[in-house]
Design brief:
The chain has 140 residues and is α+β, with helices and mostly antiparallel strands. The chain has helices spanning 2-21, 49-60, 107-112, and strands at residues 30-35, 41-46, 68-74, 87-88, 94-96, 117-118, 121-123, 126-127, 133-137. The chain has one domain (30-137). It is globular.
């Protein structure tokens, strides 16, 4: 019996060491800056490879389809977007051509009315600035 326990312990140790030697690679992310009619700048992080490619295509001018950003906001700042008290949840960000009016607001308007967001203002915390347009990709 002790010999079997020794073999099991050795196998578990090997598996654990392999896990440390071969870390799981993090998903690619990319940060992009956008502006809106207010002229303010806001940083959005994208984690979906297709959306990252779409953003790069927009910046390169190879597409004009779905140029605006839509996603759910989180009411707290993040390191990559320190100027504002909110940010897009990267898992929810997508692009659009047209959206309903209830989710439209400028960058500073959202900041100023952040306490009201999630109710009648930006229901469900979804934000879709109609005049949003990407300006540049930020260095990694």
């Amino acid at each position: 019996m002790p010999r079997i326990l020794t073999k099991i312990a050795a196998a578990l140790t090997t598996v654990a060491m392999l896990g440390l030697a071969c870390p799981v690679q993090a998903a690619e992310s990319a940060n992009f800056e956008f502006t809106d009619i207010s002229g303010e700048r806001f940083v959005v992080q994208l984690t979906d490879p297709e959306k990252i490619a779409h953003a790069r295509d927009l910046l390169a001018g190879t597409t004009q389809d779905q140029p605006h950003l839509l996603g759910r906001i989180i009411k707290r700042p993040v390191a990559y977007n320190p100027r504002w008290s909110y940010h897009y949840d990267p898992r929810t960000v997508t692009f659009f051509d047209m959206a309903i009016e209830v989710c439209d607001a400028t960058i500073p308007y959202v900041e100023y009315h952040l306490d009201d967001a999630g109710g009648a203002f930006l229901p469900g915390l979804y934000w879709c600035p109609w005049t949003s347009r990407l300006v540049r990709e930020l260095p990694a």
